[in-house]
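Work through this protein:
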Amino acid sequence: MQYDLGPVEVKKRNHVPHWVTPRSIYFVTWHLADALPAEFREALRREIDYGLELIRTARGKLTIADRVRLERERRRKIERCLDGGSGACSLRDPHCAAIVTESLKYFNAVRYDLLAWSVMPNHAHVVFTCRDGFSLPELVKSWKNYSSREVNRLLGRGGTLWQEDYFDRSIRNPRQLQRTLQYVVNNPSSTGLIDWPFVASYPEAINRHF
């Protein structure tokens, strides 16, 4: 079974393609600006460049499957780095994590419908659907803008809190949705955060998609 996503519009932000569809279930992740060390980013860039060069040498050009595979591997490595607790982890402070939580919950069932989310010490995951009249980019922008302003105010600091962009994926089928929900809900405990309160799922919303 595949979800009917409706017409697909592909947009680019910072050279990264993003699928925008009217009926998508989105899985979105964004992280704090200091969460990925410079040496990690450079090593990852070299690794991806090397993989691209091997493919071009062997076949001359990249296929869509090649790009998907390389992007999937890049995201896995980034997720492992984030789960390792890199950066200052400002969201380990429960007051800061609560601000991000509030930004996610505030317009739930008004502008979007949450299926699950978790706020980690240096990143956040959200699984949700957009309501009519609201789009993925504007919703993520509103979450990031509000939480950035309020967390910086709480910490008495300025500057950039979040990474400039975010990672998103459209869920294609119930099996992928189930795996994604499990990953998001279990992310705190899998990294050693016991009794971490900044995680939730919404069974009624989830059941509408099974």
Confidence is low (pLDDT under 50) at residues 13-18. The first helix runs from residue 38 to 59. The helical segments are 38-59, 64-83, 94-105, 136-155, 174-190, 203-207.
